């Protein structure tokens, strides 16, 4: 077993992977709620980045952490609105499948 | 920390107003909520007055987090004017829709978000302002929650805005990682011209994230759908307010924080502008729905405004401000006509605009004038705006000037198709359309300002010059 | 009278009329028409006054008005007339006034019609009195929308629909102006860089443009040539013109063919040539060639037409070829001839279109095979038609002869053989003009037209006004040429140095 | 009085012009008043002209230096054009002749046009016609002359097409104008070249400068200019190959034909050559051209005239032929002879046309001479005056035509143009033959019972008598024994000819032979058997001649096939290629690209997201692989 030191790179890679997973989900999931969750994944990837950078690059300042707190808060608000809309659309269309929502096009 | 609250007065006032409207909506009986519109209107007027009074009052707050310069003030005024006109023009429409207090307060909060954006001195403020604006807009877009199209537009906007925010944030985090600061001015000082991969990625993501908000091609896909589905006044506000605010911050970030790699992004922005102008104008041609048509046209307009960013110089900033300001009147004018016509006929199809010139000469005239201003036909404001924009790039990007100006003439084609229907055809129902006083006022303001700015742009030009100079102070 | 802003009054009189009309109930047809006539009459009377009050011995810009306008673009609201713009201003007002009466029988939405028409006239006038490039541009396209709307509502559908015609007219000219605009912006930036301070006045630009590199002058001129040229229906960018005129209502055809397209020629002389003489020198052979092509090509095409308006449409393309040829000769005689020919053609084309309008109004056809023998039934129309046709073929004694003569001299001197082709155009012109006249007016009268009422009362105004100018201008050409000459000579002497660089002229 | 007339010669063209205006704007509703105005105008003009002529021909100073007064017409640096009046013997003779003949024709027209609905208009047109012609005669400047020249063309157009409801009249008028226009193109080029080379078109200045043309240009250029200038007269004076309009000009009322053929329009060409003879004199080749064209036209038209049947048409070809004579005279270097023939021709041709008009008037416009006959009994004045004209044109002494024709023949012979001389002489024979063929068929022989002729009223016959008198004695001003004419009308030096008796006798013999032949064929041979036999035997020649060498048909073919074909082709090119493919094609492509881009907006949210990410990817790629330097190469920007 190699001595494992976790450095900035690892966090950044993790964040990138998470972002990519979220991205993949956004593009491939058909359920609106799932897509919303995937967006949250992407935001969390950002949070990892922010905190990692904060820790390694500006260890004395808490800029990154602060930023992450804001992101989390705002994301919560966004999800709140988002779920409300999903419910509204479900009421109208009896579906949360994104493929059904193509009345507006061209 | 000593906080000069007078710098924050406009924001404080608007947020108080927003809250007041929201709360009053709960208190006031349903049938007199109509007055909330007037409250908002006068509140916005007062807000404009407060903002204007702070023209000379400049400074930064919270260690650079919040910047109040004339650049920001000018943009704030632009947003307030836009909100004012939108509210004034849509009161009747809102009364039909119900839920006035939510509507007006959301408009006010969106405005607040824009104002914060304009003053954003660092990435956090930027993000907060952006999301405040976006979330308010999401609510507004699906405000007609029983209308399938409105809700569909809402969910599209929600999810795509979420994705774009994530991308933007990722870009911001990379820039932060590279420079160790989130304050825009400091980022600018810390960055070197060496384009490391992380910077390239960050740059692209920033451009994409903000490009989404201004609906630059290829990040524009949401625009027509959301514009079509959203309630028309909201579309108008989205088209002017959201776009102008995003441009304000786009300039702030790219010119303020990324001047070191200007050589890299200038080229990108030029390409984006060209593609946006071309696609926006071309796809507008076959449109049959007036709102979609205006949506594509607003995409094209974004392309034009992007032109001002390319050189990253004072004249460019000034041109952007000038254009954003006049764009408010043109767009709100056009959309107010659409709103009004929709509330009379219930249709947004261009073919249903037959005979509008006979039913309401004012509406038809405003529509044509506003559209032509967007097309940049002299002597309307849009022409002067385009003149300012293209004069900044004519020496170095001649090809872009050609594309831009030729496409703007192509755009006249689809604008004139609307004029054709309005003027040539006989109306199905010849009854004249009665305009309520606020709507008529909105239309008149839009028309007169569009013409006056075109014929005598001197004063606005002076103001934007001053504001552009404050950018670097 | 010294400080009376006479040019501004000329400019605003139709606007005021339009505003007044907007408040007249739409049923009051006669009142509306009278207001329109009054508005244009004031402009016409004042421009006649200016024309004759202009001090030729002094020359240069007179009746000047200058107000600072946009400081960071160096724009001043700068009005003035010189010998080149004065005839065009007068022409606009003569035509505007006449056209109101040519449209006297418009009873479909007359209020909208005349309001738009007033705007149209104002826009055209503005381009001729503006002495600042930016102000010029502001007026340059004021007319676009009025024209489009006038065409689609009051136009007529023949070979092409009026919608197509209007759209083609509009978009074609706008695309042309897009190129022009690029040129103008580039010119502005370059001259600003040279002078250190922006100045959009024609003089200022010309002063600074002298220091432009030859290459810059060339490509900037090319852009302006395309922009102004397509407005002047320079071959092969002419195809909007016949269709557009055919689709447009009478008054629009009159103004468009009569003065609006002359803005192209005026711009070419007053702006492109004046500011960019070295560019002009480089492109002159091309202009001449295109001009000659236009003359011959359009004259032949006119010969093949059976619709009266198409004949005049192509004929105006052909006549503008002469203007181009004249400009390309780059000498005093040629430019004199170009301006005079624009004036002459304006009067003639307007009379032509006015008459065709009346014929169409009364017979409901413009298709020559369906016409014939009208001279017996409507002699006054026949007189107007023949006057226009004869002026079109350059009959001496009518206004267009002397301008054409001067153009021929200038062009023949410079281009020799090429000019001969253009001069041969007078034969084809005679052929189609007389053929049209003969087949429309002469021959056995048709019984179906026996009931036709000849023009009378207000309908006579275009014939009287334009006919008088045609004859008086033809018999006393010095009235026109002295004024023009007083503008052309200083202009040419200012750019004389640049034109002589190669010593070619 | 004479002094006044000399210094106010501008009144000569002005008076008829004022008559024109007065009729058009004032007196049109009252026909007789209009006629009086017109006649008054031209007679007053005649009086002034007579005074001018008197003043000129009693004052030898005018031989040295013409009297010129001018005003500026328009000017600019490098181009000054004055309009003015140039009074010298040639112009004085011309205005005198024109006003005299025109006055008679005007008076005649009062009778001829009686009852025509366009009576007033007719008089206004002829007044303008006379005015234009007089202006042309008095012009001191070639531009001014060109203006008048074209106005003459315009008036001829209006008058030939006077019966505009007739398709034939309409077409004839158009043909006249366009044919002349073709010629004017040449003339205009010539004038332009003169202006460019010599810097002036003022006749006096020009003649001074051309005299030393070496300073300005080369011999070749001057020759070219002369040829170009001559193209104008070829058209206006109906010389081959642009003579086609002249016979068709018969479509106008007969007084107009007389006016056009005798005194005004067609001799304008001769007059122009005479006016610019100082150019031709410098370039012998052009001079030769004038002579050859003249001689050829004279013969050519005479051959056609032999076979024609319509009375006015025969006269028309005779005009073409006679003008050929004048050109020949000018071309062989004798301006004196050429203009002398113009002078005499004016009288007898006017006479014959008016007489023919009288005949037509009597026969209700039945024009075929084969259907006439024996008219002299019912119309003695018309008939006998016509006979006088016939004697004059045939060249029987002492009638006017003899003297002038003789002078031309002598000039041709003396200058060594033997071929042309023979042609001219043969033409003289033909002239006598066809003219007397006309006279015999019309006035003598048996009466056609279908006709009910009557003599015309005095208002018509009195001018005939006067003209007959003039035709008889008009030539006496230029007999070889009393050469008054040649003392006044000449170029450079008086052209004095010794009487050449051989030529005189020869020409009289030829004329007599022609008359005799006609007499034999058309009077003696009552059944006209011989004639029919001849026509049958030489059927091909007869057909060709009768169809005027098919020149009209060739022109018609050229006009309709080549010109109209080209026009059609260009028009199709315009609407299908320039407009269809290029303009509409571009518009269509624009629309199509809009349509196809539009499809990308599928409405599917996740597609949008995908595009968004692809966009980001594209930006990254662009940024990573195109540095600012390479980008600036393609897109510009960074310096």
Please summarize what this structure is:
With 106 residues, chain A is mainly alpha-helical. Chain A has helices spanning 8-28, 32-56, 63-93. Chain A has a single domain, classed as Helix Hairpins (Orthogonal Bundle).
Descriptors for this entry?
heterotetramer, B: 473 residues, mainly alpha, two-stranded antiparallel ribbon, 19 helices, C: 505 residues, two-stranded antiparallel sheet, 20 helices, globular, disordered C terminus
What does this structure look like?
- The complex is a heterotetramer of chains A (about 110), B (about 475), C (about 500) and D (about 650).
- With about 110 residues, chain A is an all-alpha fold.
- Chain A has helices at about 10-30, 30-55, 65-95.
- Chain A has a single domain (about 10-100), classed as Orthogonal Bundle (Helix Hairpins).
- A two-stranded antiparallel sheet of chain B has the order 1-2.
- Chain B is globular, with a radius of gyration of 21 Å.
- Chain B starts with 8 loop residues before the first helix and ends with a helix.
- The mean pLDDT of chain B is about 90.
- Chain C has 20 helices and two strands.
- In chain C, strand 1 and strand 2 (about 75-80) form a beta hairpin.
- Chains C and D meet through helix 7, helix 12, helix 14, helix 17 and helix 18 of C and strand 1, helix 7, helix 8 and helix 27 of D.
Write the layout of secondary structure elements.
The complex is a heterotetramer of chains A (106), B (473), C (505) and D (639).
Chain A: H1 8-28, H2 32-56, H3 63-93
Helix pairs in contact in A: 1-2, 2-3
Chain C: H1 6-22, H2 29-53, E1 62-70, E2 75-81, H3 85-102, H4 110-129, H5 133-140, H6 144-154, H7 162-195, H8 202-209, H9 214-231, H10 240-247, H11 250-275, H12 277-303, H13 308-329, H14 332-363, H15 374-377, H16 379-392, H17 401-415, H18 417-441, H19 460-475, H20 477-499
Antiparallel strand pairs in C: 1-2
Chain D: H1 2-7, H2 11-27, H3 31-57, H4 61-64, E1 67-76, E2 79-87, H5 89-112, H6 119-138, H7 142-160, H8 167-198, H9 203-211, H10 219-236, H11 245-248, H12 254-263, H13 265-275, H14 277-282, H15 284-307, H16 311-331, H17 335-362, H18 375-378, H19 380-394, H20 400-414, H21 418-443, H22 458-473, E3 478-479, E4 482-483, H23 484-488, H24 501-524, H25 529-537, H26 539-546, H27 551-598, H28 605-625, H29 628-635
Antiparallel strand pairs in D: 1-2, 3-4
Helix pairs in contact in D: 2-3, 2-6, 3-5, 3-6, 5-6, 5-12, 5-17, 5-22, 6-7, 7-8, 8-10, 10-13, 10-15, 12-17, 13-16, 13-17, 15-16, 15-21, 16-17, 16-20, 16-21, 17-19, 17-20, 17-22, 19-21, 19-22, 20-21, 20-24, 21-24, 25-26
């Amino acid at each position: 077993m190699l001595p494992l030191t976790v450095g900035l790179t690892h966090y950044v890679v993790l964040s990138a992977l998470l972002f990519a997973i979220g991205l993949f989900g956004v593009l491939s999931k058909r359920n609106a709620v799932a897509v919303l969750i995937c967006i949250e994944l992407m935001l969390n990837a950002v949070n990892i980045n922010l905190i990692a950078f904060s820790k390694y690059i500006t260890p004395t300042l808490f800029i990154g952490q602060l930023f992450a707190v804001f992101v989390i808060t705002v994301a919560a608000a966004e999800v709140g609105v988002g779920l409300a809309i999903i419910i509204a659309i479900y009421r109208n269309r009896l579906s949360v499948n994104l493929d059904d929502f193509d009345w507006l096009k061209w | 920390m000593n906080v000069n609250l007078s710098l924050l007065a406009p924001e404080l006032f608007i947020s108080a107003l927003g809250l007041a409207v929201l709360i009053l909506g709960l208190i006031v009986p349903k049938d007199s909520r109509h007055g909330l519109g007037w409250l908002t209107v006068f509140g916005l007027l007062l807000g404009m007055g407060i903002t204007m009074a702070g023209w000379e009052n400049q400074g930064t707050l919270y260690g650079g987090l919040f910047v109040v310069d004339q650049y920001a003030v000018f943009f704030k005024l632009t947003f307030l004017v836009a909100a004012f006109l939108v509210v004034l023009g849509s009161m009747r429409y809102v009364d039909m829709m119900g839920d006035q207090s939510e509507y007006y307060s959301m408009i006010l909060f969106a405005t607040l978000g824009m104002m914060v954006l304009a003053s954003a001195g660092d990435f956090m403020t930027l993000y907060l302002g952006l999301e405040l604006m976006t979330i308010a807009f999401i609510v507004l877009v699906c405000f007609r929650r029983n209308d399938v199209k409105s809700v569909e537009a809402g969910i599209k906007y929600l999810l795509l805005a979420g994705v774009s925010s994530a991308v933007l944030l990722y870009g911001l985090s990379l820039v932060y990682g590279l420079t160790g600061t989130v304050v825009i001015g400091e980022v600018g000082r810390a960055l070197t011209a060496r384009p490391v991969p992380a910077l390239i990625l960050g740059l692209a993501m920033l451009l994409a994230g903000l490009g989404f908000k201004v609906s630059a091609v290829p990040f524009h896909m949401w625009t027509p759908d959301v514009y079509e589905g959203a309630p028309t006044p909201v579309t108008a506000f989205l088209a002017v307010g959201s776009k102008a605010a995003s441009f304000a911050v786009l300039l702030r970030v790219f010119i303020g924080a990324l001047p070191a790699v200007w050589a890299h992004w200038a080229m990108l922005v030029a390409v984006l502008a060209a593609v946006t102008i071309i696609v926006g104008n071309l796809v507008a041609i076959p449109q049959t729905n007036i709102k979609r048509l205006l949506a594509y046209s607003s995409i094209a307009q974004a392309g034009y405004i992007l032109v001002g960013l390319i050189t990253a110089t004072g004249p460019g900033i000034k041109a952007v401000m000038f254009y954003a300001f006049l764009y408010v009147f043109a767009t709100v004018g056009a959309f107010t006509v659409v709103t009004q016509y929709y509330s009379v006929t219930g249709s947004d199809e261009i073919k249903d605009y037959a005979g509008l010139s006979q039913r309401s000469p004012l509406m038809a005239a405003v529509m044509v004038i506003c559209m032509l201003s967007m097309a940049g036909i002299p002597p309307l404001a849009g022409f002067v705006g385009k003149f300012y924009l293209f004069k900044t790039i004519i020496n170095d990007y001649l090809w872009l000037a050609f594309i831009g100006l030729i496409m703007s003439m192509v755009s006249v084609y689809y604008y004139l198709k609307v004029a054709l229907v309005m003027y040539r055809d006989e109306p199905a129902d010849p009854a004249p359309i009665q305009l309520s006083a606020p709507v008529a006022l909105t239309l008149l303001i839009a028309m007169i300002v569009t013409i006056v700015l075109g014929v005598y742009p001197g004063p606005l030009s002076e103001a934007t010059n001053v504001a552009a100079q404050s950018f670097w102070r | 009278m010294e400080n009376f802003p006479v040019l501004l009054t000329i400019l605003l009189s139709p606007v005021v009329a339009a505003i007044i009309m907007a408040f007249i109930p739409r049923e009051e047809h006669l009142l509306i028409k009278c207001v329109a006539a009054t508005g244009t009459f004031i402009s016409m009377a004042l421009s006649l006054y200016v024309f004759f009050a202009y001090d030729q011995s002094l020359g240069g810009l007179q009746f000047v008005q200058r107000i600072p306008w946009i400081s960071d673009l160096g724009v001043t609201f700068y009005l003035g007339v010189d010998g080149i713009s004065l005839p065009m201003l007068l022409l606009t007002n003569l035509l505007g006034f006449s056209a109101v009466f040519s449209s006297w029988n418009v009873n479909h939405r007359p209020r909208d019609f005349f309001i738009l028409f007033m705007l149209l006239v104002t826009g055209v006038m503005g381009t001729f009195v503006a002495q600042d490039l930016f102000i010029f541009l502001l007026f340059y396209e004021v007319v676009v929308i009025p024209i489009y709307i006038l065409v689609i509502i009051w136009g007529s559908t023949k070979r092409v629909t009026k919608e197509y015609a209007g759209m083609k007219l509009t978009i074609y000219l706008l695309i042309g102006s897009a190129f022009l605009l690029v040129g103008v912006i580039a010119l502005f930036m370059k001259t600003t860089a040279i002078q250190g301070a922006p100045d959009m006045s024609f003089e200022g630009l010309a002063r600074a443009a002298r220091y432009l590199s030859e290459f810059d002058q060339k490509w900037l001129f090319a852009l302006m040539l395309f922009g102004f040229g397509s407005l002047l229906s320079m071959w092969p960018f002419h195809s909007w013109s016949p269709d557009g005129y055919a689709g447009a209502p009478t008054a629009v055809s009159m103004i468009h063919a009569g003065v609006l397209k002359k803005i192209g020629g005026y711009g070419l002389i007053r702006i492109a040539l004046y500011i960019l003489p070295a560019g002009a020198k480089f492109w002159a052979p091309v202009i001449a060639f295109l001009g000659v092509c236009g003359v011959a090509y359009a004259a032949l095409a006119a010969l093949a037409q059976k619709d009266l308006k198409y004949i005049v449409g192509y004929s105006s393309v052909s006549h503008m070829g002469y203007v181009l040829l004249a400009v390309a000769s780059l000498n005093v005689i040629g430019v004199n001839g170009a301006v005079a020919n624009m004036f002459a053609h304006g009067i003639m084309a307007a009379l032509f279109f006015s008459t065709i309008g009346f014929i169409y109004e009364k017979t409901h056809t413009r298709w020559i095979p369906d016409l014939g023998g009208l001279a017996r039934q409507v002699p006054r129309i026949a007189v107007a038609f023949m006057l226009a046709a004869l002026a079109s073929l350059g009959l001496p004694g009518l206004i267009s002869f002397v301008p054409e003569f001067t153009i021929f001299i200038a062009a023949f001197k410079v281009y020799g053989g090429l000019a001969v082709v253009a001069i041969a155009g007078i034969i084809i012109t005679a052929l189609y003009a007389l053929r049209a006249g003969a087949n429309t007016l002469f021959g056995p009268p048709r019984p179906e037209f026996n009931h036709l009422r000849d023009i009378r009362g207000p309908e006579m105004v275009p014939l009287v006004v334009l006919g008088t100018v045609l004859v008086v201008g033809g018999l006393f050409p010095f009235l026109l040429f002295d004024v023009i000459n007083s503008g052309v000579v200083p202009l040419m002497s200012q750019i004389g140095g640049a034109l002589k660089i190669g010593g070619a002229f | 009085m004479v002094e006044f007339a000399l210094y106010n010669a501008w009144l000569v063209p002005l008076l008829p012009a004022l008559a024109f205006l007065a009729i058009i704007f004032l007196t049109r509703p009252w026909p007789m008043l209009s006629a009086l105005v017109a006649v008054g105008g031209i007679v007053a003009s005649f009086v002034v002209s007579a005074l001018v002529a008197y003043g000129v021909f009693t004052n030898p100073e005018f031989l040295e230096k013409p009297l010129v007064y001018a005003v500026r017409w328009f000017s600019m640096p490098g181009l000054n054009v004055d309009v003015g009046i140039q009074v010298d013997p040639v112009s004085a003779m011309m205005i005198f002749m024109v006003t005299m003949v025109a006055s008679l024709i005007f008076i005649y027209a009062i009778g001829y046009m009686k009852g025509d609905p366009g009576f007033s208009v007719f008089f206004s047109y002829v007044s303008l016609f006379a005015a234009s012609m007089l202006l042309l005669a008095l012009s001191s400047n070639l531009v001014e002359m060109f203006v008048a020249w074209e106005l003459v063309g315009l008036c001829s157009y209006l008058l030939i097409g006077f019966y505009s409801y007739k398709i034939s009249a309409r077409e004839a008028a158009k043909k006249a104008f366009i044919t002349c226009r073709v010629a004017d193109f040449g003339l205009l080029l010539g004038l332009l070249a003169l202006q460019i080379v010599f810097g002036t078109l003022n006749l006096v200045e020009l003649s001074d400068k051309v005299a030393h043309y070496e300073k300005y240009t080369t011999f070749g250029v001057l020759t070219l200019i002369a040829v170009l200038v001559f193209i104008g007269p070829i058209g206006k004076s109906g010389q081959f190959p642009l003579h086609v309009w002249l016979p068709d000009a018969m479509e106008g009322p007969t007084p107009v034909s007389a006016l056009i053929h005798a005194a005004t329009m067609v001799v304008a060409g001769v007059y122009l050559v005479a006016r610019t003879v100082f150019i031709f004199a410098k370039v012998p080749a052009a001079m030769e051209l004038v002579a050859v064209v003249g001689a050829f036209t004279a013969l050519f038209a005479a051959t056609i005239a032999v076979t024609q049947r319509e009375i006015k048409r025969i006269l028309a070809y005779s005009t073409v032929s006679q003008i050929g004579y004048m050109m020949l005279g000018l071309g062989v270097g004798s301006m004196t002879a050429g203009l002398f023939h113009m002078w005499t021709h004016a009288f007898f041709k006017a006479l014959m046309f008016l007489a023919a008009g009288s005949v037509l008037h009597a026969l209700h416009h039945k024009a075929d001479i084969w259907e006439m006959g024996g008219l002299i009994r019912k119309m003695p004045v018309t008939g006998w005056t016509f006979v006088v004209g016939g004697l004059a044109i045939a060249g029987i002494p002492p009638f006017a035509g003899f003297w002038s024709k003789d002078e031309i023949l002598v000039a041709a012979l003396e200058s060594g143009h033997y071929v042309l001389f023979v042609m001219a002489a043969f033409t003289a024979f033909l002239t006598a033959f066809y003219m007397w063929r006309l006279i015999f068929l019309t006035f003598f022989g048996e009466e056609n019972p279908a006709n009910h002729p009557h003599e015309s009223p005095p208002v018509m016959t009195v001018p005939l008598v006067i003209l007959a008198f003039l035709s008889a004695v008009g030539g006496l001003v230029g007999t070889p024994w009393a050469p008054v004419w040649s003392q006044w009308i000449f170029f450079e030096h008086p052209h004095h000819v010794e009487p050449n008796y051989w030529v005189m006798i020869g020409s009289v013999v030829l004329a007599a032979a022609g008359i005799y032949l006609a007499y034999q064929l058309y009077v003696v041979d009552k059944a006209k058997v011989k004639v029919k036999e001849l026509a049958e035997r030489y059927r091909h020649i007869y057909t060709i001649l009768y169809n005027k060498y098919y020149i009209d048909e060739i022109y018609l073919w050229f006009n309709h096939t080549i010109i109209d074909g080209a026009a059609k082709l260009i028009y199709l090119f315009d609407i299908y290629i320039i407009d269809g493919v290029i303009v509409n094609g571009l518009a269509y492509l624009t629309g199509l690209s809009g349509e196809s881009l539009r499809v990308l907006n599928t409405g599917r949210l996740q597609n949008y997201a995908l595009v968004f990410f692809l966009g980001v990817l594209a930006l990254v790629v662009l940024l990573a692989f195109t540095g600012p330097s390479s980008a600036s190469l393609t897109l510009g920007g960074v310096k």
